[in-house]
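Regression report. Comparing outputs from two consecutive submissions.

Submission 1:
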Amino acid sequence: MKHPPPWLFVLTGTTYGVVGQFTGLVMPYATEHAGADLGSIGWYNALLFVPTFLLFLYAPIVDIGPRRKYWLVIVSAIGAACLVASFQMKLPDQITAYLAFGFAAQLISGLVGSCSGGLMAASLPDELRGKAGGWYNIGNLSGGGAFAAIAIAMIGHDVDPRLIGAVVAVMMMGPSLGALWIDEPPRPRVSPREVFRQTLREVGGVLTSRSGITGIALSLSPVGTAALANFFSGMSKPYGVGPNTVAAVTGFGTVGFNALGALIGGYLCDRFNRRVLYLVSAALTAMCGIAMALSPRSPSTYVLGVTSYALVTGFCYAAFTAYVLETIGKSDRTAATKYSLFTAASNFAITYVGWIDTRFNDSHGVEGVVTSDATLNLIGAAVLAVVFWRLGSFGKWRHPAEPAPGAVEQ
């Protein structure tokens, strides 16, 4: 079968990234702008991440009926409508409704990621999965970051919410149409009951294989979560940073660095061991946190810290996508569900790491927050490195001069 060019997934990644950056950047800034403290923002962030933990339970929906590329456009439209509604709520008076619509957007739009993961797993050979993961996360992080920059600037200058809603609709629906260019073969007619049976069998196969179990453990760990990326827009006041700088740094400033990090990560993941690179991303994340903790509170610390973290975040996400695609192997009918199983585990990790980090704000300020993040990443990487070494579960090793091997068998 003819495979799509890896760069095409930058479009589907952008659609997915808009909702992700709403949770990670726009919501924290909007609620801080309305008077919420970082501890409350941590709870809000955890709430909006809950749907991502449960995604694998309803992801089989997109393995039934229409092709995944059509499902992707459908769920993008519904998710955009929910997000547009959230921006019409007045803060802080309508915070409950604001979060409810954001929750619904996350619940629906998680299926965009399932469709994208399923399309990559079903249509790409193993030697291109690192590159595809890089491009997908350029869209996820950088495309979503561009939306966040625009939205934060609009919120900071009290722009009409209806205009913000229009921006949301365009940035979610426009890129989603790129999925229609993917050469996805028609799926045989199979009853929903048979699809769920097959899903249970294949997911069970992943969860009972050594590569699957260790892959889930890696996803559930604090390693490479880049959790602070979800809170930087709500950490601006301690560093004395204004709305224009926040919008520039957490939005457009991170776009280029996320993209560069994802490109580097994707390139390396097609040449070196993907799980090792993911553990390396945890060490790089920790270095950023330690540097910020030891630096004075100033706008320059904020700018350098956030942009460096953005570079590492792109690397983390590309490595995550690549090792997940390698772990689930060549898949078709149940690809979306198996991919969602790993992303659900990873999103749970992002949430608990972020929640733990923000618990240190009241007692130790922002220095405690970034130190917590660094510590969790270092401990997680050290423990998993030892466990994987003892079990021989680092996955495929490849020499940079050789082509990547075939997919892992489950």
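Submission 2:
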Amino acid sequence: MLQRHFPIPVLALIALAALVPFGASAQDGAGASRPTTNIETEQRVRQDVQLMLSQLASSGAFGEHPEQISLHLDEPAHRVMNIGVLVDSASADHARDGLRVMGTTPGSIAEHLGLRPGDVIMAVNGLSLRGLGADADGHALAASRLRSTVEALPDAAPLQLDVLRAGDAVALNTPVHSVYLPALRMQLGAAAMASTDAPANVGADGGGGCGRISTWDVAPRSDRQYHARILMIDGVTPGPSGGETYRVSAGTHKLLVAEDIPTRQIGAGEIASLRRDTNKELIVTVKPGTTAMVAAQLHADKLNEIMRGGFWDPVVWREMPLSCP
């Protein structure tokens, strides 16, 4: 099983994606302001996290087999102070006379202060940022002093930055306001699959070991494999309803499987929606400590057999090692 451990900036990115206060305002159809609902907050968090995961996947962060990722992210609720300034801290030499501002982020303390690209921050609340040298990694210590000083301020405390702007000394002042992030728990890949374990109510261990049967929807679309639903395992309806992963005894099991292939992949209009009673049996041999991944295999050359169900078959598309707890 692939174990991925991402650096703290990734955790920060996830936390910021969830930064939609429950007391925030939204616009109704008439343009009036109204409180943001929990449902709207959840939808925005989902969208932002999906976008972040898509960017990570595109960058290759998950490797060639993202379905094998097993990742747990746990962050307690905590207070953050969004300075929101990008400075040149590549080396002590670059920050000899202070920190040169390269940009600011919208809504940040730096934006409220009025910092501009090209400004040089010489001091924060009277503490000099000049000539502080470098840390063990060679980065300017001035950046650490700026960050730690601001983060230590209580809410509504005054913040003053002494800035050199086009040769003139400028004092920028603003009260600071922190943000409290909710606790975060996220599980990706196999970790999430294992967390959805539900007893199948069949096939006691009996000393022969255990495994899993899962319809977790990570089958490759390039192979025309889509989501499936397990209706019965060995003649018993597994629970709870809507489960995706079921713990079973190692050995052979008979499944009754339904397909969830998108209508657009099968046909168009009412013809595709008329498919009925196309559930199929699948015999699965589950090895100890292994998860059998089940999907619906679409047969593109048999789309004319919609009513008879010839257009698909249930398949085990991958066996994944995932030990039982």
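Expected: both submissions complete independently.
Actual: both completed, but the second showed a warning that disappeared on reload.
Relevant detail on submission 2: The radius of gyration is 28 Å.
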